[in-house]
C-alpha cells in the first residue's frame, strides 16, 4: 500500500530508487507530498517534507561504520506555523498545529534588499494583452476561455506536444488588457506546477476525456486543452479531433500536462500508466517565454470544447 501511494505522488523518486542501486536516502521535493513515515523502495529510504516550509523533516540514521550501511533510522515531520481548521461555537477558526514561530527581525531585515530585487524583476513587462484574458472563476471553471487557451497553447509549444491539457484548479486569476508582468503570470499560475511530457495512445487520451466528461463544470477537475477539440455530450466524449484529424485510438501521441495531473492528481489516474518525462520547466515560465516571443497576445475562444447538457 505504501509503495502504491508513493508511486502516484512521487514517481521520480520511485524510478530513481528502482533503477539506480546504492542510494541509501532520497530526500524528495516539488511534488508537495506529506510523507509522515519514511518509505522504502528496495534498500532506499524516501522522505519528503511537503511544501512552502510547512514542515521540517528530521531523519536520524544509525550507520554501521564497518559495513557503511544504515542499521536503524527514525523520521518525523515537525510542523512550522502549520495551521488547522477548528470549529468553536458554530464558527470556524485556524490554530497552530504545533508551535507558532515569529519572524526573526534580523533575517527579515537582511532579506529586504533581495525582496526589492525580486519585486523589480516581477514588475517588468514581458508582453502585452490586447484583450482581457478571462480567468474569472464564473467563466474559466465552467467553459473554454481565451486565457485557458493561451496557457495550454504555451504548454504545447514549449514541449512540442500534439496535445496539452490542464485542470482548471491550476488557474487562479485573469489578466487585464494591457502590459503583462511576470507577477501577473504567477498570479494566474501560482502553484509551481512543472511541465511533463507523456507518450499516450489515442485510447488512453480517450480515457482521460471519458473521465473529464463526467466532471461537472465548476469543479477544479474541469479540463482545458490545446491541440484537441471535442464535445461533451451529457457525460460522453464525442467528435474528438487532434489538430483537425479524428483521434486514432492506436496512434501514439505526445501529451503535455502538469506534474500534478501526471501523477494522478484530481483522480486523473490514467496518466500514471503512460511513460512520462518531467521537463523541469514550470507552466508559468513556459507561459512567460511564450508571451515574450509573441510580444502581443489576443487569444480567442475557438470552440475547443462543446458541452451538451
TrEMBL record:
GO process terms (BP): nucleotide catabolic process
GO molecular function: 5'-nucleotidase activity; nucleotide binding; UDP-sugar diphosphatase activity
Membrane-spanning residues: none
Record's keyword terms, sorted: Hydrolase, Nucleotide-binding
Recorded family membership: Belongs to the 5'-nucleotidase family.
One GO location term (cellular component): outer membrane-bounded periplasmic space
The protein's name: 5'-Nucleotidase domain protein
Domain 5'-Nucleotidase C-terminal: 128-272
Pfam families, A to Z: 5_nucleotid_C
InterPro entries: 5'-Nucleotdase_C, 5'-Nucleotdase_C_sf, 5_nucleotidase/apyrase, Metallo-depent_PP-like
PANTHER family cross-referenced by the UniProt entry: 5'-NUCLEOTIDASE, 5'-NUCLEOTIDASE-RELATED
Keyword Transcription tagged: no
Domain of life (superkingdom): Bacteria
Amino acid at each position: 500500500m505504501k509503495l502504491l501511494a508513493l508511486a502516484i505522488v512521487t514517481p521520480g523518486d520511485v524510478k530513481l530508487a528502482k533503477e539506480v542501486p546504492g542510494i541509501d536516502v532520497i530526500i524528495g521535493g516539488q511534488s508537495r507530498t506529506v510523507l509522515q513515515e519514511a518509505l522504502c523502495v528496495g534498500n532506499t529510504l524516501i522522505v519528503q517534507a511537503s511544501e512552502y516550509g510547512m514542515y521540517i523533516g528530521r531523519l536520524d540514521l544509525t550507520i554501521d561504520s564497518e559495513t557503511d550501511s544504515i542499521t536503524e533510522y527514525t523520521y518525523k515531520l515537525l510542523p512550522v506555523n502549520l495551521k488547522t481548521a477548528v470549529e468553536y461555537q458554530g464558527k470556524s477558526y485556524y490554530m497552530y498545529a504545533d508551535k507558532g514561530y515569529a519572524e526573526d527581525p534580523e533575517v527579515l531585515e537582511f532579506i529586504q534588499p533581495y525582496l526589492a530585487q525580486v519585486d523589480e524583476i516581477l514588475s517588468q513587462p514581458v508582453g502585452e494583452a490586447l484583450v482581457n484574458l478571462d480567468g474569472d472563476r464564473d467563466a474559466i471553471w465552467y467553459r473554454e476561455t481565451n486565457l485557458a487557451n493561451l496557457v495550454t497553447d504555451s504548454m504545447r509549444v514549449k514541449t512540442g506536444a500534439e496535445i496539452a491539457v490542464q485542470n482548471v484548479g491550476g488557474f487562479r486569476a485573469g489578466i487585464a488588457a494591457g502590459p503583462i508582468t511576470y507577477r501577473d503570470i504567477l498570479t494566474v499560475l501560482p502553484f509551481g506546477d512543472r511541465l511533463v511530457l507523456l507518450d499516450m495512445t489515442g485510447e488512453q487520451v480517450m480515457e482521460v476525456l471519458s473521465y473529464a466528461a463526467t466532471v461537472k463544470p465548476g469543479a477544479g477537475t474541469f479540463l482545458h486543452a490545446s491541440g484537441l477539440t471535442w464535445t461533451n455530450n451529457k457525460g460522453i466524449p464525442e467528435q474528438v479531433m487532434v489538430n483537425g484529424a479524428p483521434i486514432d485510438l492506436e496512434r501514439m501521441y505526445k501529451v503535455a500536462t502538469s506534474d500534478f495531473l501526471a501523477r494522478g492528481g484530481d483522480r486523473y489516474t490514467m496518466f500514471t500508466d503512460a511513460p512520462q518525462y518531467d521537463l523541469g520547466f514550470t507552466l508559468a515560465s513556459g507561459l512567460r517565454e511564450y508571451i515574450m516571443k509573441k510580444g502581443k497576445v489576443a487569444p480567442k475562444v475557438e470552440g475547443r470544447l462543446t458541452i451538451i447538457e
